[in-house]
Amino acid sequence: MKAVRIFILILLLFGMWILPLGCGSGGGDGGNTSNSSNTTTTQTNMQTITVNGGPQSISSYPYLNGAFTSVTVCVPGTSTCQTIDNVLVDTGSYGLRLLSSALTLALPIETTGSGKQIGECVQFGDLSYIWGPIQTADVYLANGNEIAHSVPIHVLNPNYYVVPSDCSSGMSIGEEDTLSTLGANGILGIGSSQYDCSFGGTNYCDSGSPLAATYYACTSSGCTNTNVSLSQQVQNPVALFPKDNNGVIIELPAVSGPISSITGSMVFGIGTQTNNTLGGAKQFSLDQDGYINTTLNGTLSGSYIDTGSNAYFFQDDAIPYDSISLWYTPGSTLTFSAVIGSKTNVSFSVGNADNMFNDYPNDAVLNALAGYSIGPFAWGLPFFYGRNVYTSISTNGAGAYWAF
Fold it and tell me: Cβ(351)–Cβ(364) under 8 Å?
């Protein structure tokens, strides 16, 4: 098998914050442009997304099954703006996170009531983390037709103060705040919650006992855990649009095998315009932890549907897998049928990852890529190929659902 890295990026706080289980580095050209070639649609509530391998300038391998788009950010209340390409679209997280190396604007930094800067640490299940200040920006999407004003965003900066020990301790992979480590110029988290640290009506970061490795109050003498209100948390920018703010639809074409790239759309709003109606899509309500049930081979587990996971991830000890990378490597392609909810059957394929990496080294779209993982079943980006998948957004988690 080629030396392709697997990322298992699952937030350690309360389960829903999921980022890509990525292969190799992806992302952009390391910079930005004044006008994005990715934003070419004519509808006022949609923009283009592309699964194209990301910024191969930093890696000989494409970012596999990663959907990228462009985001325009502005100094709040001004026309001083910048468009950043190669931002990963992630329906499993909440909020915009950008590399400081890709951001040239001087954005305001959020502060506590005592004037200390607010920083954030996010830890991942592969024992890595991201770190940096919370800054404020106006966020423009859909060719500037969808605008969220004064959004707290997370700027990933390896040079931002000294990383607190409870953030970095035990994180053996280390900090992933550069293009070569994150694989993208940023992450656009458009999942089912508005707030970064709140779900089901509970603000986990303003409870009087802040969670370790979340938000910090920082000065030159160091950073200490702090509580933050909802208004200062990193927030899903879609939820702050004046309209089309109740969800997102990801539309990608069907694929029958490895190919170099595909192009689709990200549509904002559900049932707010003629191009985002539910139609015949079936809804699946999220439980209190943000999951839905999936049954595979008679085993019931929680599951999530997530563009930020770049494969199917589940536990099946009967399928051979690489002991280091954890990619499944069956002798021939396997076809499974799982049940989502109570009776919705979904078929999917699991191919030999070694063979795909070796036979299709330049292809970013691998519809049968799957990996071994203990925990909830991840319906990653391959699930989206050939489907319109709806992710609703709820301020307090009540009534949130996925639909397809």
Answer: no
Q: What is the DSSP letter of 127?
A: S
Q: Under CATH, what is the fold of the domain 273-403? A: Cathepsin D, subunit A; domain 1 (2.40.70)
| Nearest-angstrom CA–CA distance, 43 and 47 | 8
The CATH number fitting domain 46-240, selected from 3.90.79.10, 3.50.30.10, 2.40.70.10, 3.20.20.190: 2.40.70.10
What is the DSSP annotation of 306-342?
-TTS-SEEE--TTS-B-TTT-BB--SS-EEEEEEETT
Rounded Cα distance between 1 and 54, Å, is: 21
Residues recorded for the chain: 404
- Per-residue model confidence as pLDDT tens digits over 181-228: 999 999 999 999 999 888 767 788 887 667 766 999 999 999 999 999
- What are the phi and psi torsion angles at 220 (to 5°)? -65, -20
Neighbour-count burial for 367-378, b at 16+ CB within 10 Å, e otherwise: bbbbbbbeebbb
pLDDT tens digit sequence for 105-122 = 999 999 999 999 999 999
Nearest to 35 by CA among 84, 100, 74: 84
CA 24 to CA 364: how far, in whole Å?
Answer: 11
Q: Contact 381/51 with Cβ under 8 angstroms?
A: yes
Fold equal for 46-240 and 273-403: yes
pLDDT value at residue 38: 39
> Over 343-387, what HEC string results?
CEEEEEEECCHHHHHHHCCCCCECCCCEEECCCCEEECHHHHECC
Residue with tokens 């009531």: 113
DSSP-assigned letters across all residues of 3-72: ---B---B-TTTS--B----BS----SSS-BSS-TT----STTEEEEEES-S-GGG-SS--TT-EEEEEE
Asked if 345 contacts 338 with a C-beta cutoff of 8 angstroms, the reply is yes
Tokens 């990996």 locate to 371
